[in-house]
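ok here's the first one, seq then struct tokens
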Amino acid sequence: MLHPSIPLPNFHHGFSTNHALCQAYQWRLTHVKLQNSKKDLGVHKISKTGFPPIVSPPSPLLQEQMSSLSPSVELIQSVEEQEKGEDETCRLQLPPPPTHAFEAFYPKGSINPSAPIPGGFGFYLTGPNDFVSGQEVLMSYRVMFQNDWEWVKGGKLPGIFGGVGDLAYKCSGGRQENRCKCFDVRLMWRQNGTGELYTYLPPTENNKKQLLAVPPVSRANNDYGFSVGRGSFTFVKGTWVCIALRLKMNTVGEEDGELELWINGHSVISIQRLSFRDSEMATIKGMHFQTFFGGHTEDWASPKDQRAWFADITGVSILNTPSIHLTR
């Protein structure tokens, strides 16, 4: 089976902060050290909480505990062997725990980064200078919540964003203007670790129809984004969870865009017939790497000081289509 960070058989090129993953895929992945990510991953528009510290994360739950909580994933021993049709595989659980990670700190009482008590962090990243997005990308990362994490009502996790020039930014927070010129697809945790996609897409009737049809529960939030596929997966405390999100742009004038989400290598949400743009000027920009509790009201706030860790940031271009270099 495929690596949970890249759960697809074919892609053209990409990058990752996971050195072992880059070695497995050899020339197709550029390795970027997490310690150099602020410069080498095109990080920009950092929120007032600042750029997160890079730390050695705590050890996850014991492997036997993980096996009862997380889906089993087989990792290919060598991508080259797989392409040659060889059957030798290395049967493992999820990849070894990362040795370095971004640390997100959510103080007691914190909600979103602009609140009186800010929590988490936020920035945008485009990938290395030589990364070309094309019209279809997959972006992934791993996240671990502390062992005694309290979920409260919910919070945000990173995803993919894009649109027309600078209008692509801040496509969230209840934004209503120029909504056809941007898109933002992040994740959320909800009560008890229930997971979902949280989307801001152009507000077309067909997008609404397709998003609300996703099981088990999907909802349109008044003045905010859509909660999509709530309950299709559940986050687990104290162990690394691999999140991979694929976005395929629609052909201008058509509704043939796609979204797909994998958790630990398992496809849990797949949506077709979407529209992300009405102009060729709209492109995939990269990752909206943001996390916080909320919501915007105090009943969403973290009940205590809490931490989560993010690692193995990866991005790949899938289709060999006319490409546009990502701009910062």
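and now the second one, same deal
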Amino acid sequence: MVLNYIWIAFFLIAFVVALIRLVFWGDMEVFPNLVNAVNGAAKSGFEISLGLTGVLSLWLGLMKIGEKGGMVQVISRLIAPLFNRLFPTLPKGHPAFGTMIMNLSANMLGLDNAATPMGLKAMEQLQKENHDKESASNAQIMFLVLNTSGLTLIPISIMVYRAQYDALNPADVFLPILLATFFSTLAGLLAVSYVQKIRLADPVVMAYLGGMTLLVLGTIYGVSLLDKEQVKVISNVGSNVILFTIMILFVAMATYKKSKCV
């Protein structure tokens, strides 16, 4: 409901401001520019939605294959000890665990298009466990914070965009992004855990967080030993190799499971 009011406010505020510019400043171009901007935004929205449809179809299809083949369940079991503590309201073995970790993994690799459909799927699964359909549950809030804080080990998308715009060194944002997203994720986790009274002083939680910290520090150390061009190449190749390997594992696991049933 609030979003409806915000949407209406956009139009009303734009109209009032344009009218003021026309009456008091004699700006004869303001309304033509306003209408052109509205049409341009509508066109951009459609093009973005159309482009995202293919990506959504691909990854939602792969997620379905992963669920049927059991790969999502395998991933869920690997992360279950941590997620059972961060998401205490979810039943053990919930399929959202696997979807959430796939989303967070794609974000870590900087692959936003791959992360989006899995994030939407995870929210859909979490909503089924939400007793108050009009408000976000604790699990949804925790996932949203972890998702939007966006721990990124390999910011491949940003480096690609920088390369397209002729940045002198597209990979020089690697360490700043890694540090910024690591601490933003840690801060978000601590804040939500405090509000939701989640006990982080738990051996399992500390082990996972300690392991993640060591991974980040190890990545920083490894990158510091490479020159800028090597960082760019390794980031680009490594992230996409990992992503395609996940796709192959999903398909292979499903094929193996199906062959056993025949």
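notes on #2: The chain has a mean pLDDT of 82. The chain has one domain: 62-261.
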